[in-house]
Design goal:
The protein contains 15 helices and nine strands. The chain starts with 14 loop residues before the first strand and ends with a helix. With 393 residues, the protein is α/β, with parallel strands linked by helices.
């Protein structure tokens, strides 16, 4: 914690419902917020999986009007947001439901910002740039990773610059968050792994952040414990409701941690991979995490040693540095066990993208400007970032 004058904030939705069947409360909660015709922001995958129909059936039963915008893409873009704004206005909607993982929530948050404040989504890049409250907003999570259903973060790709804009604004925090494990049962193993490793990255980066507090520490520690206990089980058997529910709590706790302690250079660098190559965020984080934290180790050696213990590693009798390194080993082992590619080149091939060393200088320059890097515990020079990207290839 700070030794000079410093005021810490803590941001979280007003209401959160977690547990089997929590989604049944959606109609009554939208009404309680004052909404009567929500825009449901989601994606084609959620529609094709039948998850959107589960929610619209609930709204139909409650005789509530709604409109569905399902054109959100992974790594949602400024064009996505502005198209959603037009649908919202054209249909005279008065509230928002976001349904999905981070992409749907981020897109919906962008829609709400522009609907309420006018202008373009680019106007809100940075911290607390809005001046008017969002429409009534309920976020329904279908993955256990991003925690975007409860955060003040909104990440949108600017297609003209090929960068991810980091929008951090307390007004985009959803009024109500819902995490129902039943909506996650059909999530495939690869997505379960990627989103779970995303949650781990949130917890780890928040735990070593320069603005961590006792409140964020407690959330991060429990998140790490739950992820190491249950992520492998959730990947192995998606119908394991105990594991699914545990991962709901884990990713939410990780969200509580990073929503208030912020993140670090893993996210600053991963955002560039998403903006440059349109690669999936969770897997980028998972690959970069041990490399960035190896760089950060000397700044937070005691905390990495504590993490190793939380992860279930035996650190009895080990020198502090060796105990701390056990945490990095445990992260690598978990990543391998759940099927994360070994490096960025392999990840790129999986998605038909050519990740190459020639692009590293450009990504480095953009990563050094990313707001997430401001709370990294060690300040990297450009050469350090280049070295980390190179090691992660």
């Amino acid at each position: 914690m700070a030794v000079n004058e410093q005021v810490y904030g803590f941001f979280i939705p007003s209401v959160t419902l977690i547990g089997i069947g929590a989604s049944k409360a959606i109609p009554e909660k939208i009404k309680a917020l004052g909404g009567s015709k929500p825009l449901i922001v989601t994606d084609k995958g959620i529609v094709n999986a039948g998850i959107c129909k589960q929610i619209t059936d609930l709204l139909d039963a409650a005789k509530m009007e709604y409109v569905v915008y399902s054109d959100t893409i992974p790594n949602p873009t400024d064009e996505n947001v502005h198209a959603g704004v037009e649908v919202y206005k054209k249909n005279k909607c008065d509230s928002l439901i976001t349904l999905g993982g981070g992409s749907s929530h981020d897109c919906g948050k962008g829609v709400g910002l522009v609907v309420a404040n006018g202008g373009k989504i680019h106007d809100f890049e940075g911290v607390d740039k809005s001046s008017k409250p969002m429409p009534p907003y309920l976020a329904v999570n279908t993955t256990a990773g991003t925690a975007s259903e409860m955060t003040r973060f909104c990440i949108i790709t600017d297609l003209s610059r090929h960068v991810k804009m980091a929008i951090v604004d307390w007004r985009v925090t959803p009024n109500i968050a819902i995490d129902d494990p039943l909506l996650m049962v059909g999530m495939p193993p690869a997505l379960t792994a990627a989103t779970g490793m995303d949650a781990l990255t949130h917890a780890v980066e928040a735990y070593v952040s320069t603005i961590a507090t006792p409140m964020t520490d407690s959330a991060a520690e429990k998140a790490i414990e739950l992820i190491f206990k249950y992520l492998r089980k959730a990947v192995a058997n998606g119908k394991d409701l105990e594991a699914r529910e545990a991962m709901c709590f884990a990713q939410y706790l990780a969200g509580m941690a990073f929503n208030n302690a912020s993140l670090g250079h893993v996210h600053a660098m991963a955002h560039q991979l998403g903006g440059f190559y349109d690669l999936p965020h969770g897997e980028c984080n998972a690959i970069l995490l041990p490399h960035v934290e190896k760089f950060n180790l000397i700044a937070r050696v005691e905390r990495f040693a504590k993490m190793a213990e939380i992860m279930g590693e035996n650190i009895t009798g080990l020198p502090l540095r060796k105990a701390a390194e056990k945490a990095l080993d445990a992260i690598k082992e978990l990543s391998t066990d759940v099927g994360i590619p070994a490096g960025l080149v392999e990840l790129g091939k999986r998605y038909g993208k050519d990740v190459k060393a020639a692009d590293i200088p450009t990504m480095t320059a953009n990563a050094q400007k990313d707001a997430c890097g401001l709370t990294n515990p060690r300040c990297p020079k450009d050469a350090d970032v280049v070295a980390i990207y190179t090691a992660a290839l």
